[in-house]
Specification:
single chain; Aspartate Aminotransferase, domain 2; 44% helix; seven-stranded mixed sheet; Aspartate Aminotransferase, domain 1; globular; 2 domains; four-stranded antiparallel sheet; alpha/beta; 371 residues
Length: 371
Amino acid sequence: MISLAGGMPNSDLMDIEGLDAACRTWLSDSPAKSRYQYSLTEGEPSLRQMISDRFLSYDQGVDIDDVLITTGSQQGLELAFHVAVAPGEKVIVERPTYLAALQILDIAGIEMASAGGDEDGIALDEVEDLARSSKVGAVYVVPDFANPTGRVMALERRRALIELSEKYGFYIIEDNPYGKLRFSGQELPTIHQLARSMGSHNCIHVASFSKFISPGLRVGWVTAEPSLLRDMVIMKQSKDLHTSTMSQNIVSHYLASGRLEANLDKAMQGYRQRMHALADALNSELAGSISFTRPEGGMFLWGTLEQDVEASTLLQLALEEGVAFVPGAEFYPAEARYEGANQMRLSYSGITPEQAGPAVMRLKSALRKLG
């Protein structure tokens, strides 16, 4: 089975040697009596300082007290939704959007509304219509190499979204797990960075080390204005008290080792090769059947079936041929799943470049069975 379904980093592109060394360094340098003790809910000060210095240095006035360490970005999203959205308020999501965010909102019983999108990001005219006609607590976006579409929100649209948040009083929850995975094009400022430069404190920035260091360590972070962050700390205390001390220190020591930049370059070359291998194979074998846009980073190609074919039907035949993908309908709110009926997410992160051609040939065989 060749899987184009998973959205996980490629183990071959992770710096396992460096992570092992970071773990050994922490074990040898840390005091034995405190090594396995409870830690601060806010997170290890050394890691929070590194995040503030290395990833948030562009934000004037942002420091260690503005950073909360979370158990992956999943927990960060859960905390953000709960503190930003009051009872009776809605969260606006883009169609399509990250499946786990939909699940978190559904489990929490938070009402959703949705707005369409295009290559430049979420449709702001629809966002404004919703904000004008109902109580909106937050707008959730994945502005950089979105899951599932791989799109990047345009700079002017980011600014305009911030202006809408100020006009209507909602928060922007910026989910940014893929921002470091750019392998072409020009890097854009985060919404959080832009908001601060515009004098706005309405953005909650959620990020993670999972996609560019290690997913198994489950370490992420949230940056938000102080009152919101305090509420998140209290909520986190009741959920898991604090993120794994060992995981935090492995990340901290790995960052201190200076190996991240070189490994990021290696990983970006690897993902670029995989993306182009898959895109070239699709263009060669299925140009009249599946349309897509090559992303500038991230892990996903978003495909649209040209024929009147449901992706869920195609998936069953594809599995028989030995290739897997995720049907697009999975990334839409329940009432809009029909919009994704002929769409599909193809992940290139988990394959080798040599597997791209065989994967596409198996998709081609499955499509032939549909006639």
